[in-house]
Amino acid sequence: MNSSPSFWHTTWKRLWKNKGAVAGLIIIGLSIFTALFGYFFAPDSSPFANRIILEIGGQKPGFRQSFVLVKKVLQPRQPGLLEQMAYGRPDKYDYVPVVNWHRESDSLVVQKYIDEDLSERMSLALSALAPEPVVHKIFLLGTDKFGRDILSRLIIGTRISLSVGFITVLISLTVGIFLGAIGGYFGGKTDELVMWLVNVIWSIPTLLLVFAVTLLLGKGFWQIFIAVGLTMWVSVARLVRGQVLATKELQYVEAARALGFSSSRIILRHILPNILGPILVIAASNFASAIIIEAGLSFLGIGVQPPQPSWGLMIKENYNFIITQNPVLALAPGFAIMLLVFAFNLMGNGLRDALSVRSSP
């Protein structure tokens, strides 16, 4: 006799039938791959994609330039595979933009590019150059005002947004599930205390609360995780409390109490697994909100600090180009934020529909 499909198996079947949810999952999957392995295929694989070449600052998409590779005086230590995946590979050479070049005995004579109509003649010893001294690069999305490759910083910036989303959602779920579960299950004074705390935090504007936490903890990469995470648990706690209040009166919970199971076991093994669906939906929504809040804080200068390539920080550094000659510098990270948030919203909507008991299998 064939057993009926499990609830989660049926849920996954419904989810994969939802084209919007599948599209969102594909975008999220590609973003995770980019975040993990971005340094291996980014045009600029230096730490934080922070290769500054001031002479080519503010160039438009498709800009092409030739460079002479000059050995650095102090050669950096070359990292291993895992270290390169996490932090990038320091440049062994300085990139000198050139217009033209030719060899003269043991030297390379170049016209160093300074501006569109300005160059400078230089003579460089071949011993101070790379084995292949001249390289040609295409900047598909142009360069920012510091001459850094926008595409590379966009790629590496993916891990900032995903890291903020993941860790803040983890913090918000941990705090929200704990407080919501004990408030809903035990009721009485415990529930009143939890709801009082929820109402106090709920009454404070989210951005103002994030400002306060950020100013208290200071600016930086890890501080932004805590600041955003500690302001997003309220919606989780309210949801979990309501679900626990409805679930704790069901027969299987009453049976667990009658068998003498402890309250912690009943909550962890009998109640929470059965309310996991709504929690996943709100987690996807909070992930999208965390990305937007981080971008906003970085744009205001109190989030991720330079030279880390946060998308919000990239918009802040280049937003003045929108009304001048090169709007792509600010529009590219803005589009990346929109696409990733849209993907999480699609996935959240798909989860909501797949977990609905009214959905057809």
UniProtKB/TrEMBL annotation:
Q: Which residues form a coiled coil?
A: none
- The domain of life for this entry's organism is Bacteria
Q: Which residues form the ABC transmembrane type-1 domain?
A: 158-348
Q: Which GO terms describe its cellular component?
A: plasma membrane
Q: Which residues cross the membrane?
A: 21-42, 160-186, 193-215, 221-240, 275-302, 322-346
Q: Which PANTHER family match?
A: D,D-DIPEPTIDE TRANSPORT SYSTEM PERMEASE PROTEIN DDPC-RELATED, OLIGOPEPTIDE TRANSPORT SYSTEM PERMEASE PROTEIN APPC
Question: Which family does the UniProt entry place this protein in?
Answer: Belongs to the binding-protein-dependent transport system permease family.
**The name this protein goes by in its record:** ABC transporter permease
